[in-house]
Amino acid sequence: MIEREIADFDLEQIARSGQCFRFRELGEKRYSVVAGGKYIEVCQEGRLVRFDCSEETFESVWRGYFDLDADYGRYKRAVAKRDQYLQRAVAAGCGLRILRQELWETIVCFIISQQNNIGRITKCVENLCSLFGEICYNRSGQVYNAFPTVERLAACTLEEFAPIRLGYRARYILSAARQVVSGEVDLEAVRHMDYAHARTELMRLSGVGRKVAECICLFALHHIDAFPIDTHIRQVLDAHYPKGFPLKRYRGFAGVMQQYAFYYELVTN
Q1: With 90 as the cut, is the pLDDT of residue 195 above it?
Q2: At 116, is the pLDDT very low, low, confident or very high (cuts 50, 70, 90)?
Q3: What are the two backbone dihedrals, phi and then psi, of residue 198, each rounded to the nearest 5 degrees?
Q4: Which of 127, 138, 150, 244 is the most buried (most CB within 10 A)?
Q5: All residues at 6 or more sequence positions from 132 whose CB lies less than 8 Å from its CB, including other chains
Q6: Where is each HhH-GPD domain found (predicted)?
């Protein structure tokens, strides 16, 4: 068990923020997470966060995954005092972090996310992993499923996806997987691209438009200048930023501001 005191960190807010769909609530302020094929249980009391893993695994996997080396206090202090909406949003989501997720998993999850809600996305991802993910065992010997590899999904048929009830998204996922396996889209190259080039390359994938590409850039590639605009954020912009969001003020971390706003809309509407 690893214990750390962490400022600007709220496990529950992160789990409910809609950026990852493999958090499972085990109890009050206690969650399991599967990421990159690894399983962990995390709990929090105040600023004290406990990670049920070895020191080596914490340093090599989870410190980076939860973005623990970033100073989110600095991001929050940058918010303009006159911006009452964003001040409220930051107060509501003061413990959010931008997770560093695995690229292929994030692509699939955000293809699924289109015209969908968090509960249903989570169920679809869970079923996808149960059907096609590698069987793994946690430290207690309990079974969990890793996220399906791109090769496994590329080998599927549309009929095999039917039990998951993905609708039109199944065709997108199958096509995107085959694009990656064939080398038409090189995810390893994408990992090393800057934000603009990565977004453009991701949009070559079936089912990945501008908004989904922005989400992938933000939540997998950690281009935290990405600013996805979905229905929630469009309403925020129309209501509070009719002249446009002040992206220049938050250059280099506008995506963090987007996440505060997105979470605020989730919990207040």
Answers
A1: yes
A2: confident
A3: -65, -45
A4: 150
A5: 148, 152, 153, 156
A6: 112-266
C-alpha 234/C-alpha 232 separation (Å) is 6
Which residue has tokens 């250059």?
A: 251
Q: Which residues pair with 32 in a beta bridge?
A: 24, 41
**Residue 209 confidence (pLDDT) above 90:** yes
Distance CA 95, CA 111 (A): 27
Tokens of 158: 């549309």
**pTM score:** 0.94
1 is written with which tokens?
């068990």
Question: How do residues 133-177 score in pLDDT, each as one tens digit?
Answer: 999 998 888 999 999 999 999 999 999 999 999 999 999 999 999
**Three-class secondary structure of residue 48 per DSSP:** strand
State the chain's maximal CA–CA distance in angstroms.
Answer: 55
In terms of residues, how long is the chain? 269
Q: Which two tokens stand for residue 46?
A: 């105040």
CB-CB neighbours of 122 under 10 Å: 19
